[in-house]
Design goal:
Layout: E1 6-11, H1 13-20, H2 27-40, E2 45-50, H3 55-68, E3 75-76, H4 86-102, H5 109-130, E4 141-145, H6 152-155, E5 160-166, H7 170-173, H8 180-192, E6 198-201, H9 204-213, E7 222-224, H10 239-249, E8 257-261, H11 270-284, E9 290-294, H12 302-309, E10 318-322, H13 329-334, E11 338-341, H14 350-357, E12 362-365, H15 370-374, E13 379-381, H16 386-398, H17 400-414, H18 419-433
Parallel strand pairs: 1-2, 1-4, 2-3, 4-5, 5-6, 6-7, 8-9, 8-11, 9-10, 11-12, 12-13
Helix pairs in contact: 1-3, 2-18, 11-12, 11-16, 14-17
């Protein structure tokens, strides 16, 4: 007997925002997009895309779908949030037709007609299948809030199983590192999940943190699904790509460099990176690799510049690149001597995994979820021990055999994380929720 597919209504609001503003393409953006692509490929999932925000966000989501061309599932407008029947789905398609006309775009009637034909056909198949299902399961479907809080209307619906993704509890654990908005937003997200709902976390550590703030929540309803690094990251980046990137950054072709990729904010602990770099630079002098800090300025980033001033003559060997596009990131990772990530807290930590997938050794914090990601494939350090960080940097720089060994281990470790595996874990969570 053919397995009945699960209807999943998946919020892509973040993808619309990220498509409009490239700098908003953070780790959360990558997780939401890649998971949607992986879920869409599964036969046991019927994915419907929606935005629960305002009309402007809906318009941006339409633009993302039309221009990025990465997802093909039907799109639902804000009006379709109840998401119970096939009529709601078709109404979402009609809203796209109207929007296309308003924007002067082509209607692509062939695609729409084919989609509506499939919906009519599938409705007949579903009607036959529903006769074999009990009343509780007949209209059951999943609403997955991938970033935003779960709407009250969804939480009250008995025929919808609400899911939320919890990436981390940083604003509640470390409020001094975050804005008031971040704190309030996280509080609303955590409290919006009803007791009958389910949560997807991106590490065991994040799962524990969520349950510490929602002690009333059933632990069996909190599921771990590890993200992965995109396939654009790999160990076979060509030398001329690295050379072009160095020219773009103003580095000499032969100049080695240490690398950190993150938002410039206190939680990322770049102060320790800069201090450790100063220790290494005092030992190596003019032979010191450059330090490349890639990322956009974040909350309270001014302390980084204060720390740089204390480097004195070595500060000329520190390069702050600002935002680096996805096209340049693989070469940036692949060209580095080692990757530095002594973050004080991470819900998962995509940058170390991206670096590992490129075969670049990682010097990483031994706190929060990062040991789950890096395992024994990187050098784990106390993020507040600048001498320890400097020692790890020196080891990777001076011992080519050690660097080669960690490069191989990094590639092997990164293979354990795939988007298909994440989709398996999430699909299993969906399935368990509607039994």
């Amino acid at each position: 007997m053919r397995k009945t597919s699960i209807s999943v209504h998946y919020d892509i609001s973040v993808l619309g925002a990220g498509h409009f503003l490239e700098r908003s393409r953070t780790g959360i953006f990558k997780v939401i997009e890649e998971l949607a692509i992986a879920l869409e490929e599964r036969e046991d999932i019927r994915l419907h895309l929606l935005s629960q925000l305002d009309g402007e966000c809906i318009s941006r989501c339409h633009r993302y779908l039309g221009e990025a061309r990465k997802l093909n599932s039907p799109y639902l407008s804000e009006a379709s949030i109840p998401l119970i029947s096939s009529q709601d789905v078709e109404r979402g398609v009609m809203s796209k037709l109207v929007l296309d006309l308003q924007q002067g775009g082509s209607i692509d009637l062939g695609w729409r007609a084919g989609y509506l034909f499939k919906k009519i056909r599938n409705r007949g198949i579903e009607a036959l299948s529903n006769r074999r299902m009990n009343g509780q399961q007949r209209n059951m479907s999943i609403y997955h809030a991938t970033h935003q809080p779960i709407p009250d209307a969804i939480a009250r619906m008995g025929s919808i199983v609400p899911f939320a993704t919890s990436y981390d509890m940083i604003p509640l654990l470390f409020p001094s590192y975050c804005t008031e908005y971040d704190i309030s937003f996280t509080q609303r997200m955590v409290s919006s999940i009803p007791l009958h709902g389910h949560v997807v976390t991106i590490s065991q550590h994040s799962r524990q943190d969520f349950l510490s703030f929602r002690q009333d929540f059933n632990p069996r309803n909190v599921h771990v699904a590890y993200p992965a690094a995109s396939d654009v990251f790999h160990p076979h980046v060509k030398a001329d790509q690295i050379l072009r990137l160095k020219q773009k950054l103003g580095l000499a072709a032969s100049a080695p460099y240490y690398l950190s990729v993150c938002t410039l904010e206190p939680r990322k602990n770049l102060d320790s990176v800069i201090e450790a770099f100063g220790i290494v630079a005092s030992q190596l002098g003019i032979d010191t690799p450059y330090l490349v800090l890639a990322g956009t300025p974040g909350w309270k980033y001014g302390t980084i510049y204060e720390k740089l001033e204390r480097l004195n003559i070595h500060k000329s060997r520190v390069l702050l690149t600002g935002y680096v596009s996805d096209d340049d990131l693989p070469a940036l990772y692949a060209g580095a001597t080692c990757f530095l990530f002594p973050s004080l807290y991470e819900g998962f930590g995509l940058p170390p995994l991206e670096s590992m997938k490129c075969g670049t050794p990682v010097v990483c914090s031994n706190l929060s979820s990062l040991p789950e990601v890096v395992g024994d494939a990187g050098l784990l350090v106390d993020p507040l021990d600048c001498e320890g960080i400097a020692k790890a940097m020196w080891s990777i720089t001076s011992d080519h055999e050690l660097r080669s060994r960690y490069s191989i281990k990094s590639i092997d470790r990164a293979r354990k994380f795939t988007w298909a595996k994440m989709a398996d874990m999430v699909a299993n969570a969906y399935s368990s929720a509607i039994r």
